[in-house]
Amino acid sequence: xxxxxxxxxxxxxxxxxxxxxxxxxxxxxxxxxxxxxxxxxxxxxxxxxxxxxxxxxxxxxxxxxxxxxxxxxxxxxxxxxxxxxxxxxxxxxxxxxxxxxxxxxxxxxxxxxxxxxxxxxxxxxxxxxxxxxxxxxxxxxxxxxxxxxxxxxxxxxxxxxxxxxxxxxxxxxxxxxxxxxxxxxxxxxxxxxxxxxxx
Amino acid sequence: xxxxxxxxxxxxxxxxxxxxxxxxxxxxxxxxxxxxxxxxxxxxxxxxxxxxxxxxxxxxxxxxxxxxxxxxxxxxxxxxxxxxxxxxxxxxxxxxxxxxxxxxxxxxxxxxxxxxxxxxxxxxxxxxxxxxxxxxxxxxxxxxxxxxxxxxxxxxxxxxxxxxxxxxxxxxxxxxxxxxxxxxxxxxxxxxxxxxxxx
Lengths: 199, 199
Hints:
The structure is a homodimer of 199-residue chains. By secondary structure, chain A is an alpha/beta fold. Chain A has helices at 16-23, 40-52, 63-66, 78-97, 111-120, 135-141, 146-151, 182-195; strands at 29-33, 58-62, 101-105, 126-132, 173-176. The first copy, chain A, has 8 helices and 5 strands, in the order αβαβααβαβααβα. In chain A, helix 2 packs across helix 8 (182-195) and helix 4 packs parallel to helix 5. Mean pLDDT of chain A is 91; it is low at 1-10. Chains A and B meet through helix 1, helix 2, strand 2, helix 4 and helix 8 of A and helix 1, helix 2, strand 2, helix 3 and helix 4 of B.
């Protein structure tokens, strides 16, 4: 700046901690993983509402706002699935840096991909939530009719049918939706967050 | 959910408007564009601090947190520059949806790329800020020594030297840093935001 040659170059002086203080919450990513139809979307939508009612600032990343936007140039090959999760992880990291409690709802079938996201963040900033349901239960629910199409061979590489789902080896939270109702699942996560002082 | 077959599927019930209300601010992206050395980073860092002091929740996207993360697999070819700006635009859109006043500081030399981002957002959500400085002034400042390297041929495709910079044809705000000091530039933007009711 012509008038400001004596101004010292400052790195960003507003930090993640500042933004968290502004909101009186600790930011992290709640990474929901599980089969299609396991309940990831339903639970994260209900959780988002419950957190909003307690003035917690959240944001939810899911197929609707990511696959049609940032990741619209990716398909479902193993390489593209990996790049899909990598980008989501990087965006989640930015959201956490912005001070937001971030909810992600993606099948994210590969443990290596999930662990790559975990590595991006501090230990208490990555909360892996395994939405566990039997394949039979998911296929029975089949909310989008996708299992039926996969069984008919109309969709190739469908997780659980002809593509693998690698269960989390040590998830932070497991929600067994063969047993838990949606409100019970939401309460389980809320209790965890409160106990750990996230808000 | 096995216990919740009577639960109606809800689309996300927490909206951008809810998140804005939570923070008593309107979200948008302040898209700073200009030559290397024009003052984008310096101004956005100072602006972020000034906004924080007024309890405005912001987030700043710049080369440091984007080029080394989300866009680490992109180079500086015209195609990669376009994909770089496309991804930044999509992330900025998510940040705006999250209720955050988002500051971006990228050269973003192509008008078509900037307009593609504009198209992603509502009219009052994309505020183009042209950080205007003569090439001579930028080259004279050369805070990172990049112009010197570009003139020596050590960097190819450097904006302003051997790659084009397309000036915004109708920026929302122009900050002429050949004339304005950093505090003056910051105040210009703050005044605009207040006048338009962003906070």
